[in-house]
Amino acid sequence: TMRRLALLTFVVLVGAPSAESAASKSVGVTNVKQLQAAVVRLRSSGGTIRLRPGFYRQLIVPPRTSRPLRIVGGPGVRIERVVFNRTKNVSLSRVRISPRTQHAIVELWDSKHIELNGLVVSAHGTPYSATVAVHRSRYVTIRRSRFTHCGDRSREFAFCLMLFRRSRHITVEDNRFHDCYGCDFIHG
What is the spatial distance between Cα 152 and Cα 89, in angstroms, rounded to a whole number? Predict the structure, then answer.
């Protein structure tokens, strides 16, 4: 029976996923450098990136495997520019898209199965604009987000949500568009 117990213990320890591999699928970040490193690290495995409060100038999500990647913010998380470039199965939620030194934008280029959820897109009090632009992408969902003051003081006409040709299967659901002067809420 001792031999059976040792064999059972060996099977349980070898067959169980390690604590490190489970923890590696969720990564907390506090700056742009850590954020880009986490995107690369989770490229094949998928997982969750948790953004700590702060300002992130730019996030680029390049091509990756089909395993889902979640990028999750919360109060105090602000991003100036996000680019989804030929990527798939990525969600971005609970972040503020707003400018600091240039126009703020979330751009989707040739991407699919992207979900934007709970965003605040606003350029309030700045001379810039804030936009979500969807280029040649499919199966994109923009849900429970707020678009406000997308370009009140911008010298250029602002579009809160811009849908370009060859984008298909776009769902815009349960969003709030309000208080935008000199801009177009949804254009495309």
Answer: 33
Amino acid 24: pLDDT: 52
Q: First and final CA of the chain: distance in angstroms?
A: 72
Question: Which residue, 117, 124, 107, 114, is CA-closest to 88?
Answer: 114
> Each residue of 70-107: pLDDT tens digit?
999 999 999 999 999 999 999 999 999 999 999 999 99
pLDDT for 10-19, tens place per residue? 444 444 444 4
Name residues whose C-beta falls within 8 Å of residue 55's C-beta, 6 or more positions apart in sequence.
78, 79, 80, 100
Beta-carbon contacts of 18 under 8 Å, excluding residues fewer than 6 positions away, are none
Paired sense of beta strands 96-97 and 69-72, if any: unpaired
Q: For the residues of the chain, what is the DSSP string, one character each? A: -HHHHHHHHHHHHHHSPPHHHHHTTEEEESSHHHHHHHHHHTTTT-EEEEEPSEEEEEEEE----SS-EEEE--TTEEEEEEEEES-EEEEEES-EE--SSS-EEEEEES-EEEEEES-EEE-TTSSS-EEEEEES-EEEEEES-EEE-SSTT-SS-EEEEEE-TT-EEEEEES-EEE--SSEEEEE-
Return the percentage of the chain with pLDDT > 70, whole number: 87
